[in-house]
Design goal:
Elements: E1 4-11, E2 15-22, E3 29-34, H1 44-55, E4 58-63, H2 66-70, H3 77-94, E5 100-105, H4 107-118, E6 124-130, E7 155-160, H5 168-177, E8 182-187, H6 207-220
Parallel strand pairs: 3-4, 3-5, 5-6, 6-7, 7-8
Antiparallel strand pairs: 1-2, 2-4
């Protein structure tokens, strides 16, 4: 997998951050992808997601938040949201012609959803949440999902059935409340970091391959943002 190293301006105050572009020759979609709260864009989990996505024709533009790029305390939500917007703009330039998706693992997906809830992300047709962190471990709640009602594009939740940050008994009703814009795909025996119980897992399919396959199938039927319908 060839990773094209890039950088873009996250915010005027925080400066530039790094990004990695992976674009297979047969790419049909582009995914703007970011990391969890305590990892970065080079983490094995995010790299594996990018590899499996490339195998199904989805290019990825993964990037760092400023706090992880510069090794400082976590940025405010406002900074993270602006970084998401800047990343989407940079990805549009890096992946011309591809319909875009945006999301991330855990915290990164949540910040992407906040950005989309505040105002539409230009050129983005759908959001992909890799283990959306619905609540803190041992503190089941759904307040973190309140803003999702303001998102106006389709959302795909890829969530493990053993995820301690998203009890399925809470996440499923949240998804149902969001109506047709939300699709929930449970990942059998996977935890928040996508580790699975191989002996009891119902399918032999690799969990990262499963996420890529489901994302591709879901993305293939999304209406493209800004697309013009042909006359009848």
């Amino acid at each position: 997998m060839i990773e094209d190293e890039r950088e873009f301006l996250a915010t005027p105050e925080k400066g530039k951050v790094s990004a990695l572009l992976v674009r297979p020759k047969d790419a049909r979609h582009g995914l703007v992808l970011t990391h969890g709260a305590s990892t970065d864009m080079r983490h094995d989990n995010l790299r594996t997601i990018a590899e499996r996505m490339a195998e199904v024709g989805i290019a990825t533009f993964r990037y760092n938040f400023p706090y992880m790029e510069h090794g400082r305390g976590r940025d405010s939500q406002a900074v993270c949201v602006q970084t998401v917007r800047s990343a989407v703009a940079a990805a549009r330039e890096a992946m011309p012609g591809l319909p875009l998706l945006a999301g991330g693992h855990s915290f990164g997906g949540r910040m992407t959803s906040h950005a989309a809830a505040e105002s539409p992300l230009e050129g983005v047709s759908g959001l992909v949440f890799f283990a959306f962190p619905l609540h803190q471990p041992g503190k089941p709640d759904t307040k973190r999902a309140d803003h999702l009602k303001s998102v106006t594009i389709p959302m795909l939740f890829l969530s493990g059935t053993r995820d301690e940050l998203a009890e399925m008994g809470l996440l499923r009703p949240v998804s149902e409340t969001l109506g047709p814009l939300a699709t929930l795909h449970p990942l059998d025996t996977a935890d928040h970091g996508f580790k699975v119980l191989k002996r009891s897992r119902a399918t032999p399919e690799d969990v990262h391959a499963e996420m890529a396959r489901v994302t591709r199938e879901w993305a293939d039927v999304l209406p493209r943002v800004g697309a013009v319908s042909s006359p009848a």
